[in-house]
Design a protein that fits this description.
single chain, Phosphatidylglycerol_P_synth, mainly alpha, about 200 residues, CDP-OH_PTrfase_TM_dom, Four Helix Bundle (Hemerythrin (Met), subunit A), phospholipid metabolism, phospholipid biosynthesis, about 0% strand
Length: about 200
């Protein structure tokens, strides 16, 4: 019998205190550091702006790392399923608010995205007593699109390459915005279908 099994043959659940969850928590803690670095020099294209952009990219990239470790080492936990999307939302939310404060992103875009993200997060917490809702494939694609769009917006490329980069940034941000709204609606539709379906009895 392996060390992960009990005498009854059931597989033991992995502990919440594991490396993937620790990486996720670090990602959450890095959000305020990134936010201060972004705003402290009023968004100038100096060293702090570059450092803030790189920190965001590195922090958001760990989303794939902790997920890979959790799956490959059988360390997937309900806590991780809950914290992982929250970490992404905290990071992207900090970036969006920071960019809007710096007048580099319209506030309405930030508000639409944050309303969707906060709404889905609250809904997940409400459903905790019944089930843990992991990020869907569409949700993960949305997060990827947001990450790319925000990374392009954070990097001060227009000052180096010209204003045409702003058009590229706008296209990626529009894609991220559309995916954010569509996947938010999809979550609600799928939940209503699940609630309407007859419950199975043992």
């Amino acid at each position: 019998m392996s060390s992960t099994e009990h005498s009854g043959g059931a597989v033991a659940k992995p502990s919440n205190w594991n490396l993937p969850n620790a990486i996720t928590v670090v990602r959450i803690l890095l959000a305020p550091v990134f936010f201060v670095m972004l705003l402290v020099d009023n968004g100038a294209d100096g060293g702090l702006r570059w450092a803030a952009a790189v920190l965001f990219i590195l922090a958001i990239a760990t989303d794939g790392i902790d997920g890979h470790i959790a799956r490959s080492r059988n360390l997937v936990t309900d806590l991780g399923k809950l914290l992982d999307p929250i970490a992404d939302k905290v990071l992207t939310g900090a970036a969006l608010v920071g960019l809007s404060i710096l007048a580099e992103l319209p506030w309405w875009v930030t508000i639409v995205i944050l309303v969707r993200e906060v709404g889905i997060t609250v809904w997940r917490f409400v459903q905790l007593s019944d089930r843990v809702i992991p990020a869907s494939r569409g949700g993960k694609l949305k997060t990827l699109a947001q990450s790319v769009a925000i990374s392009l917006a954070l990097l001060p490329f227009p000052n180096l390459l010209g204003d045409w980069v702003n058009w590229v940034n706008a296209v990626f941000m529009a894609i991220a915005l559309v995916l954010t709204v569509v996947t938010g609606i999809d979550y609600i539709v799928q939940d209503r279908r699940l609630n309407r379906s007859p419950k199975r009895t043992a």
